[in-house]
Amino acid sequence: MQLFFDGNTGHLIVRMPQEFDHYMAQNMREAVDEALADERIMGIRFDFADTTFMDSSAIGFIMGRYERVSAFGGDVLICNIRPRMRMMLRMSGLQKYVTFEEECNE
Amino acid sequence: MNNQIHISFPAIPINEGVARMVISGFLMGIDPTIRELEDVKTAVSEAVSNAVIHAYPGGCGEVRMHATLDENKLELTIEDDGVGIADVQKAMEPMFTSCPKAERSGMGFTFMESFMDTLSVQSNPDEGCCVCMTKIFGKTDAYEM
Fold first, then answer.
1. CA-to-CA distance for B122 and B61, rounded, in angstroms?
2. How many distinct structural domains can be found in chain A?
C-alpha cells in the first residue's frame, strides 16, 4: 500500500495492495486513518490498479473509511478496479456511498 | 485427476493468504480458468477469515482445510473447533455481521454461495464450525470476469 495526497483535488490517494484481505485490512486501517487526520483532505480515492485479489474485507474497510470521511462532508472514489471486484463491491450496495470512476491514471 | 490435501494451521490472519496460495497450487493440475481460480480463492479467503475472526475469541485455535479433487469436481471443507454459531441461517444472511465494529460487511457467506456451486454450513454453539463447498470445473460460463 502507498498513500499520496493529491493537492489538486484534496483527495488522499490510497494505492491498494496486490491482494486485499482481512489481514491486509488490519495492517492498513491505522495508517490510512492517521493520514486522514490531515485537515487539507477533502476525500479519499482508492486506486485498485495493482490489485488482483480482494475478498469481502474490502467492503468493510471502504465503508469504515467512508464513515470517517463523510463525517466532514468528504467523498470516496474508487478507480482502476477490475470488473470482478467492482461486481463484488456492487453486490454489497457500496455504490450508494462511493463513486466508481471509469478511468483515472495517476 | 484425483488428488487430496489436508492442512491445519493456527487461526491467525496471515494464514488467510497462506490458505489461498495452497488451494491455488492444489488446483493448478486441472488448469482452471482465471475466473474459476478467483472464485475458489475468494471462497477460501472468506471461510478462513470467518474462522480467524470469530472462532476463538480471546485465544487461538486450529483451522483445518481439506480439499478433494475427483476429476473436475472440487470438495472443499474448512473447519474449526471454536465457539460455533447459534443461528447458522441468520449468520448466512447477506449483510448480517456479529461484529460491525470490526468493519465486517457480512458478505462472506454470500460470496461463498455466489462463487461456489454448493455451500453448506454445520455448526452448533461450542462445537466449532464446518463449511463445506463444492465446485465443478470446466463448465461453460455465460461470461468471463
1. 18
2. 1
pLDDT of B143 over the 70 cut = no
- The crossing angle, in degrees rounded to 10, of helices A57-71 and A22-35 is 10
Q: How far apart are CA B79 and CA B51, in angstroms?
A: 8
Is B103 in contact with A63 (Cβ distance < 8 A)? yes
Q: How far apart (Å, rounded) are the C-alpha atoms in residues A48 and A54? A: 10
pTM across the whole model: 0.94
Nearest residue on chain A to B14, alpha-carbon basis: A23
Q: What is the CATH number of the domain that holds A85?
A: 3.30.750.24
- Reported as a pLDDT band with limits 50, 70 and 90, residue A102 is confident
Q: State whether B145 and A84 contact (CB < 8 Å).
A: yes
Note whether residue A106 is domain-resident.
no
Strands A19-20 and A53-54: parallel
CB atoms inside a 10 Å sphere around CB B117: 14
**Confidence at residue A1, expressed as pLDDT on a 0 to 100 scale:** 87
Out of B16, B41, B145, whose CB is closest to A23?
Answer: B16
Q: Is the predicted pLDDT of residue B142 greater than 60, yes or no?
A: no
**Residue A75 domain-assigned?**
yes
* pLDDT, tens only, B19-35: 999 999 999 989 999 99
CATH architecture classification, B2-136? 2-Layer Sandwich (3.30)
